[in-house]
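Below is how a single chain appears once it has passed through the pipeline. First comes the sequence as given, then the structure the pipeline wrote out for it. We keep one example in the README because the format questions we get most often are answered faster by looking than by reading.
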Amino acid sequence: MFQKVLIANRNEIALRVIRACRELGIPTVAVYSTADANALHVRFADEAICIGPPMATKSYLHQPSVLAAAEISGADAIHPGYGFLAENAQFASAVRQLGKTFIGPSVEHLKMFGDKLSAKEAAARAGLPMLKGSGGAVATIEEAIQAAETAGYPVILKAAFGGGGKGMRVVEDPATLERVFKLTQTEAQAAFGNGDVFIERYLRAPRHVEVQVAGDGRGVGLHFGTRDCSMQRRHQKIIEEAPAPNLSDDLRARICKAGADLVANVNYQTVGTVEFLVEGEEFFFLEVNPRIQVEHPVTEEVTGVDLIKLQMELAAGMGFPFTQDEVKIEGHAIEIRVNAENPDTFLPSPGLVTGYHEPGGPGVRIDSAIHEQAVVQPFYDSLTAKLIVKGRDREHARIRLLSAMDEFIVEGIYTTMPLQRELLLGEAFRNVTFWTRYVDKFVEERNG
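Resulting structure:
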């Protein structure tokens, strides 16, 4: 196991890694920008090193500063958390060139899954169901039109290196495709440094179901059940739950097997998430997130598996401490992302937290890095806390979550909790009749 771990991140995920390291008896090193000098991850790590000014490009994303901190501190491993440098193959390569362990995928797997086209190729080789489409990048409008005809309209035009809903356009007919094709290529080049785009069939009302997976790098892949992340606003998840509700036993089993088969087939060595679109009894490969997910706590709550500790054990070459048959799913867990945003306009709401009280009681978990008098910074992602509850079943978890939200006080800034409360009370959530664009439709109709 590692002698010292540097955490190349901030906020609640940095605290989450610190807690896992403490259980493993591993000292930790926090890095921070000048804006985060008083942050909790700085206070609770064994060591802390300032790596630059507030802007992420000059601190958390500045690779030379992060690598220098690892050298200075004597850390022999770096945990990237999620976001920032977590999926950066260049950074992972630099870490390994320094003789340190990157607690994440290999450079080859980061490249494979960072490119949606190569990810689709790997999934197809592993036998996963794929949406009809171009199968690869389309360079000309003629190729795009032919691929769209093969898939059948409507289709979606996607940037090969896109993410978070960026570089995507739904196309209903050939005329629209001709109008937006070059524009999407140009935007992809500007946003991601690569103008490759591809086409695939567009599902009008799919659910987003993902599988938590892990691989030992020796051809063994395990799954830890499903999560439903269909409650999204502009492709950003706001409510997640495990296991995914209203799936037949056969469909659930096929989805889980597909996720485990993929990571086993490519000899993947760490934790990750395989994402699918589900419509009826059909499911189709979407992408792989080769890192720990924001929503990993709901899986931890229903399996009892500490995914961060597992991530570090796999990175240390220790293999799995259990078999697939020993992974049990019990109860139901739901998570809300408490974002510092106006729930009506969705504008960011940074500032001073003037009042703060966390809920408690059986089955209630808070992953947070804020407190009373904390400052939510304007320089980073708006996620401030995650509220996770577990119940004996889905309805019990929903009621318990609503009760916990009543106790959760965050004053001085706006949060998204009022919107999430509306959604949890709604028929669509209770009856599982939502889909990936349901929240956008709900907000549009609510606001008139």
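The first helix runs from residue 11 to 24.

See the next section for the split statistics.
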